[in-house]
Amino acid sequence: MSAIKTAAVVGGGIAGPVTALALRRAGIEATVYEAYENTADGRGAMLMVAPNGLSALEVVGVDQGLAGQPIHRMAMTDGRGRRMGEFGGLTGLPPSQVMWRADLYGAVRERAAAAGVRTVYGKRLAGVEETPAGVTAEFADGTRVTADVLVGADGIRSTVRRLIDPAAPGPRYTGLLGFGAFSKAEVPRARTDTMYFAFGEHGFLGYWPVPGQGTAWFGNLPYDEPLSAEQARATPSAAWMRILREKFAGDVPGRDLLRGTDDDELLTFGGLEILPSVPTWHRGRMVLVGDAAHAPSSSSGQGASLAAESAVQLARCLRDIPDPDTAFATYERLRRGRVEKVAAQAAKTNSQKSMGPVATKIMALLMPLATRTFLTPEKVFGWTHRYRIDWGAPVVPG
Ligand SMILES: Cc1cc2nc3c(=O)[nH]c(=O)nc-3n(C[C@H](O)[C@H](O)[C@H](O)COP(=O)(O)OP(=O)(O)OC[C@H]3O[C@@H](n4cnc5c(N)ncnc54)[C@H](O)[C@@H]3O)c2cc1C
After folding, report:
1. How far apart are CA 8 and CA 137, in angstroms?
2. pLDDT at 351
3. pLDDT (0 to 100) of residue 3
4. Residue 45: per-residue pLDDT
5. What is the pTM of this model?
6. Packing angle between helix 303-320 and helix 324-353, nearest 10 degrees?
7. Which of 216, 197, 193 is nearest to 206 (CA)?
8. Confidence of residue 385 (pLDDT cuts 50, 70, 90)
9. Domain annotation for the chain: domains and CATH numbers
10. How far apart, in whole angstroms, are the C-alpha atoms of residue 237 and residue 266?
11. Residue ranges around ligand 1 (CB below 6 Å)
């Protein structure tokens, strides 16, 4: 039985409720403190939960409530819509699931509430005070709460990260703005179980057919200024759509997908960010989890999945190791190598997405052979998607 009895979990996104659920399963009473009054941002973005994320969510029983669209394979096409290569699913694994970010938030929050985890909304962490016996969270509304440990699940702009290490790096702008929408256009022969990555002459577009709703797509626009979602939304959707239509005018199926998109359907995500390696994940009784510790680029398709994995591993460490410092160091040892490898691979994917026309043509020539020979699904996705956490296994400290 753990010597740690209580945890204050700051942030009610994905990592926070999953950590609280896993801690509860470990016999530690966890309360979630979320800055916003309730679900903040409407539907948000669409995101993909990979088999490794689904497996971590299964540990805390969230997999039951997920209503995603199963994606069994990924296909790459060139600017004329010609197939360059394809990756099928991995044998023995469930398909990835694509869903609205808000639906995933809703599912983890509902599961947390059903399991008896208390979530307190409208509590924005502002500071902390540590004593040898506990840690006190100080909220912007002047209230305070004390627990044995404090978990920073407060996202890519984490306050806890700064409180642990004032010199910690912040998010870095990738130079790309993110957009997405549903288009009424249907791409001939596109399959509803496939996510397509179209490398056109002038840019990259991802898309997948949604039964009864046309085609969902997402794409990036190089932009010098690092706009927040709010700042980007200050420009009318019609103006962004004009730029996007121009950019993809020569690409198949980008041209048709954008023509089939109503201006006011555009989802504007703002500047896409990555978090550079965070040197200090924990100090005293405070520790980071999810995007607060490791936020790979959204092109990894792994942010939420890694957040769920880290949440479960952190809870195992606190369950089995009585001293917070050793528990946190062990958690970091279990997690850092993996999350940094995913981030490095995502950085490579990002550079492919912003390739020029010549490099895209070379890729189009090489990709079919590569995916038939050395770039097998197992090689590309095996190490990420097959990762499983054995909840029942005892954690070895160190
Ligand atoms: C456009 C886009 C597309 C993406 N696509 C994918 C994808 O396909 N697959 C994937 O796996 N991931 C994807 N991601 C990443 C994924 O959304 C994140 O990795 C995931 O949400 C991280 O969860 P989290 O709980 O750590 O952080 P968040 O979801 O950001 O949650 C943090 C929470 O903390 C709260 N908070 C912040 N500060 C405080 C404070 N001081 N006090 C109290 N509460 C606070 C916030 O309000 C928020 O609710 C995408 C992200 C973007 C932007």
Report:
1. 8
2. 65
3. 85
4. 84
5. 0.94
6. 170
7. 197
8. very high
9. 6-171+275-385 (3.50.50.60), 172-273 (3.30.9.30)
10. 6
11. 10-16, 33-36, 40, 45, 47-48, 101, 123-125, 153-155, 159, 178, 269, 290-292, 295, 298, 301-305, 307
